[in-house]
Give the backbone structure.
Amino acid sequence: MAALLLNFEARSERFGADAPFRDRGAPNRGRKRRRSPLSAAEEAETARAGRGGARPPRQRFALNSLGDAGIARQVPEFHSLKFDDAPSTPRQRQIALVILLAGVVCMGMGQTIVFAVLPPLAREIGMGDLQVLTIFMLSALFWVLIGPLWGRQSDIFGRRPFIVIGLTGFAVSMTAFATVLHLGMEGALAGAVLYALLLGARMIYGVIGCATPGAAQAYIADRTPPERRTAGMSAFSAAFGIGAMVGPAFAGAVVAIDPLAPLYAVAAAAACSVVAVWFFLPERTPPKERPRPPRLSPIDRRIRHLLIYGLATGVAMSIPIQFIDFYLIDRLGLPSKDALQLVGIALSDAAMASLFSQLVLVQRFNLPPATLMRVGPLLICAGHIIVAISTDLGPLVFGMLLSGLGGGMIGPGYVGAASLSVTADEQGSAAGLSNAAGASGFIFAPFIGTFFYSIAPSALFIATSMICAACAAFAFLEKGFERLAPTPLAVEPEPEPGHDTPI
């Protein structure tokens, strides 16, 4: 994240307050840039005034009923609107990015807290293992179906409204989920009613919470040059990884107070993030009035192989997350209470390794997508083989560490590759589809995992290691990945001091 902040800062200092990159990706390079009538009129007025003449004041924008999310209309008489025309300060830009990534951290915490807390509690309140897995599966299904739609809308109406919508849905979902579990533990709910309400609470996250990742990744992509795109995407993954690392450890520490306290705490943190994003995340230029961007299909030849790769690796990474509780209980013979704390250790260990990959390996060395997509699956393959043959906690934790190290490379690899493969107007759609591909792993993982787990618990990790080996072979054989190595931006004319265009 520090590398992204420095890159974000350098770009902003050069081109003005958070100026977005409109010439992203190879397909968009070489296009002739369209100039708005307003900027042409300003330049004509400046030319008539002579060199060094004062520029006329910029026109203000009046927004429609959707606020910042609406399409802007140029209305000169609306000077009374509080729409800051001045460039943001370096500190404001740093705060903005920290606020955005803090919201992503909350979502990462909530994800792993639910995976750590629900399986042991579900067995206590009489729910079957398959019911627990279907709760995760249906949430992921809605995430996959709805996520790309949210991403596409952010291409039209702006990023911030959808970041807020997603965080709000996440906070509501976590609160409702914890409340229903509490009623089930107290005996007020049971059976089909309890199961249906848990499904409904989790589906709020799947339907509404999925608005945040695509919009947040597109927000970062708008402000990251192509040669830093993969590192920029890794900042998002790193923030999610921080939450995923802290979540299980936090749950293991707080669960002694109350088993549901971690869920309520992360919901409160998400609510605070909603307020912070709404008031302090700058998106100063409303979306330009323009035709809707072309629909980006998941079978588009530019990204379909990347989405298949993301789906396969998503299955391999989601199966351990969904089954690690059951694996520790059945493979090591642990009681549910002890398993909850050890699951926190294993998941935190994997998340810490993933964070190291994203912050150090990806950010520091700026590795290209092809390298990340080849090395990542190999590390997961090695880690899962160690887990499969282990009967002690130590080797199992080390295997999860290797798995997390590889998983931290895979996400920035294929998401960054998808971003580099499409045009500027398709960034939100590409981010939504990329997230949907990875989340699809949680749809298929219950079926694949249950089949192999019924054979033997160790067969589960043997199967995922084979999937990762196949993904690594595909990445080595696919020569098209080499063309995704980003090139530096062409030098753009320097803006006149004091006349930067805010966003």
The longest strand covers residues 61-62. Residues 10-85, 487-503 have pLDDT under 50 and may be disordered. The domain at 90-282+299-484 is CATH 1.20.1250.20 (Growth Hormone; Chain: A;).
